[in-house]
Amino acid sequence: MAQQRDDRLRVDALIVGSGPVGCTFARILVEGGQSVLMVDAGPQLSGRPGEHLRNTFLYQRDVERYGNLVSGHLQRLSPSPPDRIDQPGDLPARIDSALVTYAVGGMATHWTGVTPRHHPTVERAGCIPAADWEEFYGQAEMLLGTRTDLSADSVGHQTVLDALSREYSDLPEPYGVQHLPLAAQRRTDNPRLVRWSGADTILGPLADGSHERGEFSLREQHLCRRLQPAAGGTRIEYAEIEDHTRWRNIRVEAETYIIACGAVLTPQLLYASGVRPDALGRYLTEQPVAFAQTVLPSDPGTAPEQDPDPNVWIPVSEGRPWHCQIHRDLPYDDVEPHRGIDSSSVVDLRWFGLVDPRPENRLLFSDTTRDIFGMPQPEFEFSLSSNDLARQWSMMVDLRRATRALGGHLPASPPRFVVPAPPLHVTGTVRMGTDADTSVVDPDARVWGIDNLYLGGNGLIPTGSASNPTLTSVAMALRAARGILSHTHRSIDNGHRLLSTG
Ligand code: KBG
């Protein structure tokens, strides 16, 4: 294909990655008067950019079709499947690959929307002040539309809540059995249907072009191939973007560069750009999953398919370093269809475990093998320490306890570790910290030693955590974006416009 004329763009901020975290940066910076260009290597899958794909009647009604759609959007980064298959029930001791979603909106095009706050002492990073955590968690919940009443009217939900509240009556407030926080809302025109929050929810007015202060442009199928550090290496001078829709290269010059394309692809871009601090890719954590299924007793007054899904949570607390969600999700590959049982009465017990961050657990990038975009191929070195293993076995004992309290497991789905099916909660690969030797970004989310390069996403979470990470990453992005605004003091009057100079 013929190469068209190279273009040159000048903006206040370039954001690479259009998932929830990239969109958080965009929303705050545009509201602060900045011109923002956001690029994503993936395609836009919906009319409204980054919308959740389950927001259609078809996929809400037909879980199987929806499952096929999601599998199609989870792409393995390694070129061939892993050569090692654990025995079912084993603890997953390795990560062989990673699954990513190349799309505008990222994984929020199909996520479950589970958005808990991380536990203040067990999970949260100490390098962010406690008061900031409270403030930015509150803002993140508003931005994502997190709520705890989606299943309030469900008979099945109440049954699960009651049974587990009796079993776990000893848990201290506010860590007892409760409604799972979910970024979603019931539709007012048909409350049986749910509108799941996606990246479009975060973009708000930016998603439909009605932003009032700065300028915003979101470009799909635009790959950021490289960031070019200036001489001396303390600033990024420009970014090389490949426009795959018109097959041309664009040089983007920005005041601020924000990379938020996931815990694997963010360090990949740094590596490809020669930005390789010691901690890059190290301290990787992922959450082992213990899983079982049970069946709810049917209520003669309610047809199970009419009853909203249960969504129950037992949060992480001291002495219980695991996150528990009792809900209905897509089946794992090892789950056989339950013969003779109405699938709408089957409930999942999904427990996520905590793994300590250790430098030897890491992501590496190949200098010889390339991924589909021609970027350095990621590889993993990951194992569980004896402490990690002991913690997961305690989690398994607890899963068995909860399963018993709900009347026992389905014969085909006993409590087990699900292998290989990580929850895609990789963290730590570009971790935040106060020490440049053991972290990649400072507490403002700025790459150590590079004044105008900021990162966002789960890779920044420096601690071991068991709860779903998105809310935490959005809270960290809100804090970082406000910091960028106060550093740059830009307003619509003196900022760069989204300008083509080519
Ligand atoms: O059940 C979900 C869960 O809510 C989540 O956050 C993770 O990404 O995937 C799980 C399914 O394996």
UniProtKB/TrEMBL annotation:
Residues 357-477 form the Glucose-methanol-choline oxidoreductase C-terminal domain. Keywords: FAD, Flavoprotein, Oxidoreductase. It comes from the Bacteria. The keyword Oxidoreductase applies. One of its GO terms (molecular function) is pyranose oxidase activity. Belongs to the GMC oxidoreductase family. InterPro entries: FAD/NAD-bd_sf, GMC_OxRdtase_N, GMC_OxRtase_C, P2Ox-like. It is an enzyme of class 1 (oxidoreductase). Coiled coil: none annotated. Residues 234-289 form the Glucose-methanol-choline oxidoreductase N-terminal domain. Its EC number is 1.1.3.10. It holds the Pfam family GMC_oxred_N. This is Pyranose oxidase (Glucose 2-oxidase). It comes from Frankia alni (strain DSM 45986 / CECT 9034 / ACN14a). Its cofactor is FAD.
